[in-house]
Amino acid sequence: MPKSKIPAKVLAELNRQLNYELGAAHSYRALALWCTDQNLKGFAAFFAQQANEEQGHANKIAQHLLDRGTLPEMTAIPAPKQDFKTLLEAAQHAQSMEQGNTQGINAVYETAVAAKDYPAQVLMQWFINEQVEEEAWAAEMVARVEAATCGGALLDLDRHIVKLLKGEKE
Fold this sequence. Notes:
The protein has five helices and no strands. By secondary structure, it is an all-alpha fold. It has one domain: Up-down Bundle (Ferritin). α1 (8-37) packs antiparallel against α2 (41-67) and α1 (8-37) packs antiparallel against α3. It is elongated, with a radius of gyration of 18 Å. The chain starts with 7 loop residues before the first helix and ends with a helix.
């Protein structure tokens, strides 16, 4: 493989973000398992979709690195939080992860701008746009869980959460 043309600081940030995305996928899988254990099949399916999406995001960064002559650097992924007292706590955890992801993506972009790494800037613009959508559904999910104050409302929300948060028609 040819020598990397990616500035060192940008490369470090891209590798950090790649591993953050993998960690997010791991965390969403843990959320899906917790929801399954709580018999919240709709939320379990939604979080499983999110895990797959985060894996796809990691793949996108990895492919960018490979395309630019650099082997992605994999690091250890911390064990995810998997013990929640309530669905609201789980939803808030997901929202916090998305907010952290936005900060990480912005950090990569800022580093790419400073280094005049135009290919990385273009890649991160895609991620910046994606995070607007990700933070929007996370905020909506927290609000909907907060509003589901009785068992029936929570069961109805669980049944429809994937459609609601992905903008599908019922």
